Amino acid sequence: MRKLQITYLPSGIAVHVPVGTTLFNAAHWAGLPIDSTCGGRGTCGKCAVRVVSREAEPTPADHRHLAQERIEMGWRLSCRCEVHEDMSCEVPRPMRTPRAATMGVGRLVLLEPNVRKLLLELPEPALEDHRSHLERIRDALAVEGLEIDVGPSLLRRLAATLADGVTVTATVVGHHLVAVEAGDTRDRTFGVSFDVGTTTVVATLVDLRSGAAAAVASTINRQAPFGADVIARIGHAMTGPQAIEQLRAAVLETMNDLLDETCAAADVAPAHVYESVVVGNATMLHLLLGVDPRSIALSPFVATFLEPQDLRAADVGLEILPEGRVALFPSIGAYVGADIVADVLATGLARGEKLRLLIDVGTNGEIVCGSAERVVATAAPAGPAFEGGQILHGMRATEGAIEGVVLGDQVRLQVIGSDREPRGICGSGLIDTVAQLRLAGLLKENGILLSGEEATGHPLADRLVEDADGVRAFALTRDIVLSQLDIRELQSAKAAIATGIQVALDALGLAPEQLDEVLLAGSFGTYINPESARVVGLVPSVPVERIRAVGNTASEGAKMALVSFREREMAFGFPAFIEYVELSGVADFNERFIRNLAFPALEAVG
Amino acid sequence: MRKLQITYLPSGIAVHVPVGTTLFNAAHWAGLPIDSTCGGRGTCGKCAVRVVSREAEPTPADHRHLAQERIEMGWRLSCRCEVHEDMSCEVPRPMRTPRAATMGVGRLVLLEPNVRKLLLELPEPALEDHRSHLERIRDALAVEGLEIDVGPSLLRRLAATLADGVTVTATVVGHHLVAVEAGDTRDRTFGVSFDVGTTTVVATLVDLRSGAAAAVASTINRQAPFGADVIARIGHAMTGPQAIEQLRAAVLETMNDLLDETCAAADVAPAHVYESVVVGNATMLHLLLGVDPRSIALSPFVATFLEPQDLRAADVGLEILPEGRVALFPSIGAYVGADIVADVLATGLARGEKLRLLIDVGTNGEIVCGSAERVVATAAPAGPAFEGGQILHGMRATEGAIEGVVLGDQVRLQVIGSDREPRGICGSGLIDTVAQLRLAGLLKENGILLSGEEATGHPLADRLVEDADGVRAFALTRDIVLSQLDIRELQSAKAAIATGIQVALDALGLAPEQLDEVLLAGSFGTYINPESARVVGLVPSVPVERIRAVGNTASEGAKMALVSFREREMAFGFPAFIEYVELSGVADFNERFIRNLAFPALEAVG
């Protein structure tokens, strides 16, 4: 893709962007905030810059906001000015210091939420001024550069509110007028972000004035009884429309409970929550809207929708202000969902110069790789091993799970919870055990455990046992063993992800050692020992200091989009920018997968 | 208001329009159809004309649809090209003969409904084409120049429809995708218009392919038990939210019954009715949406909304296709409603060269006067006399009502219904009786009936009687009399309207004799004898051949907007063009009203 250079004066900061990017957005990529109160919608007229390289065609918005004299001097609204060749422009010093917060992975986010509250002093109706109540509000908002849509439910309450006085607070979300409240209510402006995982749902109630989280809560997705992973959920959905409704109701109940919990914790009325940003995989978003997800599970694996959705809260069933809005992030593909788009936003992967690889490990491993130049994404069917599924003593990362293992002269275990009594092995414990077995020389490159005999003399030789069926195993405790079959499961899971990574790197023409960073995202990623991940070959063999656990970046990305319309617009542009590779369409996938079953040679990862 | 001249070549047709009108709309006013499939939305690219007077700034739509070479030759999309000075342009001969129908008062309407059905052959999903179902449809529609919004309820059904095959019919209403049906359903494309009167509701089911009415039905507004006129209805609404809900449900039930009736008569499934256009007075539209109408009844008489509304049918409760749209016409003022805007559309009053006066007589008399130059509207509080209210033997225009009277040597009555047995007097009968009494010399200019004595020798002298209270009356039959008090009521009613007309003419600086036409609109207008209206002074003293009953132009206007998006856009522009005069704000209203109580001198109307 051809890139154009934009140079911002007087700083001289330069940025490379695709054709058609606006000067406003490009400045934002470059970390250079241009003043704006409308967030780049072309309505506030504050983002003008002076184009100095050559004349840019003025747009209707320029004519609306700028004097002819200024237009002739080269001034243009940067949010309307698209780049079609290399350009230079002069940016005036901002009139105000934009408020910003650090969010995601060290990203500075300007506080410009899509929710805007405006205090309006409306003129009293008079015989000579027969404007309707609505028109009075519309005119007052037009002065602020806002054009609005109004639904019938708001109209129903308008007359009563305006009877109480002529000072009102209008709340505009995007181009929707969602509330008109008597008096000044600007100090109660909240939004809520949801990361709807197949397993866990996380809600963050955000004070949109400060960008700070007012409360955070998470809980198990109430769809869990209908299946552990998306394929099982889709299987249930395929039993009929009432099953889809059941799944819809379950996730909605989960979300509404979390909303209640966060609102109660922060003492916020749900009616003061005006917008919700939702991320999650494509299946979760389909089910949230009650849309049949079956085509996601059946070849050729297409979703009914991947596009962002902008919905009325009451139509979704989310119990914030009924006229409030619910924004669903877009997905990249049926298996690279809106949560991954949020990951990319929070990490800045698609806008930085560094070459980065992001892995979100779960039953599907989503893989995103690239930089501002070019980004490729794919999803690898890892299976349930990392969530403890198909593992003899596997379990989820809850109380009693072995989450870390060190093998020296003896076995040292790190167990989740207070009583430290191990009950099983979770994903990070599994990776640790296998990596430690490799490093201890007890596990061969091809994945075969040594027998006790073969390990004679090794301090842990007596831990190598055989089960009733004669299958080899390594005993972590008297009751908890890791069997040869468990190791096979892990090999399959990591081989799928490693293959996905290879395919992505190949698409970009890159070798693993060129990667500047490997980011492990998602709650699981947070607990994986980066060293172990490298030893088992889950991540490429890069120096361990380049591997970072970045936490729940999906939640962070959703929060960023809630507090910043610019960030949201950027994220919503990712699906068009990021190239999706369907792994099942890759010709030599099986051959590569089989080659990746083996563990890396120790000298390669030592 | 400054007007600009646009000349269309090669015909040389010229039209005068306000600044900012598009070449496309102006051509439409001039009766010159410019080819277009998108109806002037800037998306089809078919409406290009060549500007020859001077260079017009090209718009982004021009760049999108026209080659640079053509732009340089002066070609512009006429629907995007606004007029800011006198202009000439060349219109190519249309590539196709646009389909049209004569509607309203002799108006030729192009069939370009806002509802569009498109047959789409969608590519089958494949591994290398991971577009979502929605995107496949979006892309296919983009080829036709259509950009669409999609709601969650449509998404819910999309997967199932697309599973049935890749040939589908997409229905787009405005910019909303409202249906995706398997196979080719283009021959089932219907819309329904409603004229929601305080008394009567009229529904017209329209085949949008031909513009023809498939069925028409009307019935009494089920709100009637809650009050005879808008003030009574508002009075009921003011008793609380449950009363508003009661009124909303009543009118909605009326409309849904009519929808059922027309659909059954024409054998049309309600799911094949994709759009409804609704006109009615502002109070009726408020109640239809459940909006508190109280401010309409209280000085300074403002509405909560006057603007057009574009709503989802399910949100309104209208039982066409749930995702279908309901378009409410805009109102001009709290008492000059959307029905009057539809009257103006159907009569062409605001776009013609003739000076016309339109009167819609009911409990309020709405008055619109002017031409394409300038239009003024007002509403006069006529009271219930014309609907038989406050009249001793008054009744509505139903079975048994005396609707026409001729007084010669004897009394000849025209009675509604088959058995011809008179039961009372309706509005048109009242006007006729009074006019005939004036012409017969039995009623003085000041409104006083002669006594039997004063009329001695007159063939009808014995009809002049006195009631028990000594009040004079004229006996139409043995049981049915018109009393002196009834005549007073009529005087009040006609004086209010005559004053409104005077105020409107004064605002325009016109004398009554300059009027080219006087149009009596509404069902009541249809039955008024134009000569009688002139004799009693309800309409100005213009030659009787200039007075026309134009029928239910509100219904006609709604129907026109249903079959033609251009007409709708024009109508929706009327409120900004038409000047509203609030009669209660006119300083000398009372003096004028009192002067108008008297009847015109016979020599003035003879």
Number of spatially distinct domains of chain A: 5
- Reading off the top of the CATH hierarchy, the class of the largest domain in chain A is best stated as Alpha Beta
Could you say what the CATH architecture of the largest domain in chain A is?
A: 2-Layer Sandwich
Spans of chain A of 5+ residues with little confidence (pLDDT < 50)?
A: none
Beta-strand percentage range of chain A: 15-25%
| Total number of strands of chain A | 29
Question: Strand sequence of the main sheet of chain A, in spatial order?
Answer: 14-13-12-15-17-16
What do we call the CATH homologous superfamily of the largest domain in chain A? ATPase, nucleotide binding domain
Q: What is the CATH fold-level name of the largest domain in chain A? A: Nucleotidyltransferase, domain 5
CA-atom Rg of chain A in angstroms: 27 Å
**Which structural class do you get from the secondary structure elements of chain A?**
alpha/beta
Principal-axis shape of chain A equals globular
Largest sheet of chain A: 6 strands, mixed
Task: Summarize the amount of helix of chain A as a percent range.
Answer: 25-40%
Protein model, in words:
Chain A is α/β, with parallel strands linked by helices and 606 residues long. Chain A has five domains: 94 residues, Ubiquitin-like (UB roll); 68 residues, Ubiquitin-like (UB roll) (Roll); 139 residues, Nucleotidyltransferase, domain 5 (2-Layer Sandwich); 154 residues, Nucleotidyltransferase, domain 5 (2-Layer Sandwich); 102 residues, no CATH class. In chain A, the strands form seven sheets. Chain A has a six-stranded mixed sheet, with helices on both faces. In chain A, strands 28-27-18-19-20-29 form a six-stranded mixed sheet, sandwiched between helices. In chain A, helix 13 crosses helix 18. The longest helix of chain A has 26 residues. The first copy, chain A, is globular. In chain A, 51% of the residues are buried. At the A-B interface, helix 4 and helix 5 of A face helix 4 and helix 5 of B.
